[in-house]
RNA sequence: GACCGAUUAGCUCAGCUGGUAGAGCGCUACAUUGACAUUGUAGAGGUCACAAGUUCAAGUCUUGUAUCGGUCACCA
């Protein structure tokens, strides 16, 4: 009989729970079991559950936000795995184009080097080495967080098959006429010397002088005198009565910065009579609105500022000057010529800046590849309307819809080396761009002119926007059939536009199906006072340090409890400490239970009291917790389990059992043993998705009679 | 400028479809070496931002006000 099976309580329990002692071994146990790979999971499993991991940037170590991502996703996957699904969590790493190049440029700078002037190939190889070494370092950290992802399916955004999918999408976009190469105003960062998408620009409120100049018979206002060299069009609203004497197209001779010029009057509704004098001159090469006006009236364009942010020869004596130093000099000259009317100080406006270096963006006209987004966005909205996917919070859905409704064409060209090269040829004479996957185009298909390869790379989000396809082996991999559309996309709400929206649009475009059924967006992790973590503030909480002090399970609980989906959370290490104590509590609960199991008989019948106890306490706990899990309220579920285990199991049930375990009545004692064992195994299961290490460590020490699987990770979720 | 969110215990935050306020940390007192490098018990502390409204009943719904955040747009 089993009496012999239940030996003394394992010695391991004589010491408090020490995470460091067990975590590595437990992860190894899981990894070697093969159960991270859904193909190896025990039992018949019909339904797939898939999460594609947001691939962390392979250019640094993990931060607290990563801790949250991997915890939430691991909870989801472990839960579904225990519920008998084919649970796949597909890990990856992101080369993170511009982000990584910026990190690497800082490194170069420290070494007294610069990417400008370097051989592009050499630079690429260096960044590749850097990225690959970071990648393996980072993967280790993912393991330490307990992530139960299938490493055998791991993907890197520069894998050949990923690139192939990206190239085919590029080609198909061309065939479907959703792609064009054209001269458009782009956001140009003079420091990084690349264009950026609208999303990569931050605006800062600033107070600057605002200048009024005499421009022939008009007074014009500007905050940017340095762009005014090429201004030979003067624009006003057609209905502005003050200027009704001037006609559209009328030529006016006037004195300007570097001598007399001929200006042309343009009547356009973009001229706002309310602002300044109601008259403006335009600089189509360096302003979006001006560019639009110029296009409407078929006006000339001229570049005034070069790619490094210096004035071109058109500026005459000012050529070669930096725009900031040029500004004063130009105002001075105009003043000397008697053309400065007045200066208004403290003009409030917002200035676009590079999101990486905070340097001012210089709008420029440049030939770039653009994707027409409207048709793609419409399909995404239709799919949302049809319920093919949903956002966990209504708030996120509204944010998504708003953006979809006013989406701009997407500039996918970047002038950086670190990324996927754009497979295209550009005509030297007419500027026509042609997608060329196999390097077969030798002459311009439009004008027969000579062509050269496009030196640019893709915006990194263009490739990661196809991540769910790439990871599941679109178009013909078997994983694609089984796991696409994936179940959940869980990522930070800060990349809803950058990434989530693009995956939806590109996924629908390539496959006709949404890439995921559900979007769960978490908020940002801040410090305990709600401050954004930053190195300069010195308030960065590195997950590895917290794990070191309190254990991974404690960190995971600290990140989950009281953290409502979608809202930002403040992480306080004191809170994490509370869950370290909780892990130890569970440890001692297990010790007590095992201490009292001598003579345990699985065949024992529960007394009526104990049967009733299960119904009123255990079953309701299971039901409620499962319910919260199903609603993605892991924060509430975690708290419910915590109180169930501590307040009920430990404080109430164990306390009242102490006397019953000494009962003269054998059936009462045996029933209690069974009851406690039942509570213990169930608690371990309920808690496992949240605190996988301590629960698995305990599970490994339990006698066989109590277990339905050798490994808790694949044990069956308790029945309600 | 447009939109969105937040305002609940000293601190950081939960509170789902409305029914006399909860967690962690901190604080006070007492008990305890017991499964528990502790834990247990008891307690202090909140007119749930403000105002009006709906309701038998409002942190919870509606409207408005204030303060703080966020997102998007925009350099005449």
Write a brief caption for the model.
With 720 residues, the protein is an alpha/beta fold.
What are its keywords?
disordered N terminus; 18% strand; RNA-binding; Rossmann fold; 4-stranded antiparallel β-sheet; 720 residues; alpha/beta
Shape: elongated
Fourth-level CATH superfamily of the largest domain: HUPs
Content-based structural category? alpha/beta
The total of helices stands at 20
Oligomeric state: single chain
DSSP strand content: 15-25%
What's the structural domain tally? 4
Q: Class of the largest domain in CATH? A: Alpha Beta
Residue ranges: pLDDT <50 for 5 or more in a row? 1-5
Neighbour order of strands in the largest sheet: 6-5-14-16
CATH architecture tag of the largest domain: 3-Layer(aba) Sandwich
- Measured as a percent range, the helix fraction is 40-55%
Provide the residue-averaged pLDDT: 89
Characterise the protein shown here.
The chain is α/β, with parallel strands linked by helices and 720 residues long. The chain folds into 4 domains: 202 residues, HUPs (Rossmann fold), CATH 3.40.50.620; 102 residues, no CATH class; 167 residues, Isoleucyl-tRNA Synthetase, domain 2 (Alpha-Beta Complex); 147 residues, Isoleucyl-tRNA Synthetase, Domain 1, CATH 1.10.730. Helices cover 40% and strands 18% of the residues. It contains 20 helices and 25 strands. Strands 6-5-14-16 form a 4-stranded antiparallel beta sheet. Strands 10-11-9-12 form a 4-stranded mixed beta sheet, with no helix packed on it. The N terminus is likely disordered. The chain binds one RNA strand of 76 nucleotides through β7, β8, β12, β13 and α9.
């Amino acid at each position: 009989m089993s009496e012999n099976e239940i030996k003394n309580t394992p010695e391991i329990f004589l010491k408090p729970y020490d995470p460091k002692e067990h975590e590595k071994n437990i992860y190894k146990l899981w990894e070697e079991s093969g159960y991270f790979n859904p193909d190896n999971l025990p039992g018949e499993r019909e339904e797939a559950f898939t999460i594609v991991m947001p691939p962390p940037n392979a250019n640094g170590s993990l931060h607290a936000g990563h801790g949250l991502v991997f915890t939430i996703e691991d909870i989801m996957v472990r839960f579904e795995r225990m519920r008998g699904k084919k649970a796949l969590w597909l890990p990856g790493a992101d080369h993170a184009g511009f982000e990584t190049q910026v990190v690497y440029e800082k490194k170069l700078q420290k070494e007294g080097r610069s990417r400008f002037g370097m051989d592009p190939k050499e630079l690429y190889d260096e960044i590749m080495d850097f990225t690959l070494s970071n990648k393996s370092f980072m993967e280790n950290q993912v393991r330490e967080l307990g992530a139960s992802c299938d490493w055998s399916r791991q993907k890197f955004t520069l894998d050949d098959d990923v690139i192939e999918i990206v190239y085919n999408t590029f080609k198909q976009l061309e065939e479907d006429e959703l792609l064009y190469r054209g001269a458009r105003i782009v956001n140009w960062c003079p420091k990084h010397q690349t264009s950026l998408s609208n999303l990569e620009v931050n605006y800062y409120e600033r107070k600057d002088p605002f200048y009024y100049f005499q421009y022939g018979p008009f007074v014009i206002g500007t905050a940017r005198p340095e762009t005014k060299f090429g201004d030979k069009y003067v624009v006003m609203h057609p209905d502005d009565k003050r200027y009704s004497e001037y006609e559209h197209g009328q030529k006016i001779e006037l004195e300007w910065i570097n001598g007399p010029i001929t200006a042309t009057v343009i009547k356009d509704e973009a001229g706002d009579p309310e602002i300044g004098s109601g008259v403006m001159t335009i600089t189509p090469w360096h302003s979006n609105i001006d560019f639009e006006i110029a296009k409407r009236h078929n006006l000339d364009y001229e570049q005034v500022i070069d790619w490094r942010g210096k004035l071109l020869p058109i500026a005459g004596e000012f050529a070669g000057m930096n725009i900031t130093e040029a500004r004063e000099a130009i105002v001075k000259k105009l003043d000397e010529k008697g053309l400065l009317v007045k200066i208004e100080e403290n003009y409030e406006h917002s200035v676009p800046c590079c999101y990486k270096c905070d340097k001012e963006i210089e709008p420029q006209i440049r030939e770039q590849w653009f994707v027409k987004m409207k048709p793609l966005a419409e399909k995404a909205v239709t799919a949302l309307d049809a319920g093919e996917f949903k956002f966990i919070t209504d708030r996120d859905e509204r944010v998504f819809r708003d953006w979809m409704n006013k989406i701009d064409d997407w500039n996918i060209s970047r002038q950086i080396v670190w990324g996927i090269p754009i497979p295209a040829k550009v005509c030297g004479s007419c500027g026509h761009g042609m997608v060329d996957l196999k390097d077969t185009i030798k002459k311009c298909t439009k004008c027969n002119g000579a062509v050269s390869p496009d030196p640019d790379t893709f915006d990194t989000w263009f490739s990661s926007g196809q991540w769910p396809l790439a990871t599941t082996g679109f178009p013909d991999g078997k994983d694609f059939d089984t796991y696409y559309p994936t179940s959940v996309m869980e990522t930070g709400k800060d990349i809803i536009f950058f990434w989530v929206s693009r995956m939806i649009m590109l996924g629908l475009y390539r496959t006709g199906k949404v890439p995921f059924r559900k979007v769960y967006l978490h908020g940002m992790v801040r410090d305990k006072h709600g401050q954004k973590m930053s190195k300069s503030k010195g308030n960065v909480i590195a997950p590895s340090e917290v794990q070191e002090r309190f254990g991974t399970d404690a960190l995971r609980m600290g990140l989950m409890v009281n953290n409502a989906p979608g809202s930002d959370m403040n992480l306080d290490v004191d809170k994490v400490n509370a869950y370290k104590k909780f892990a130890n509590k569970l440890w001692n609960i297990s010790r007590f239970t095992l201490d009292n199991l001598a003579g345990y008989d699985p065949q024992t019948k529960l007394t009526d009291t104990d049967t009733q106890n299960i119904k009123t306490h255990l079953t309701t706990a299971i039901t409620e917790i499962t319910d919260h899990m199903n609603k993605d309220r892991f924060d509430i579920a975690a708290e419910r389990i915590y109180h169930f285990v501590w307040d009920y199991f430990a404080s109430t049930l164990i306390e009242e059992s102490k006397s019953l375990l000494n009962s003269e009545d054998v059936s009462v004692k045996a029933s209690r043993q069974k009851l406690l064992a039942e509570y213990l195994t169930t608690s371990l299961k309920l808690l496992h998705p949240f605190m996988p290490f301590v629960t698995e460590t305990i599970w490994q020490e339990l006698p066989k009679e109590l277990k339905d699987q050798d490994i808790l990770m694949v044990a069956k979720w308790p029945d309600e």
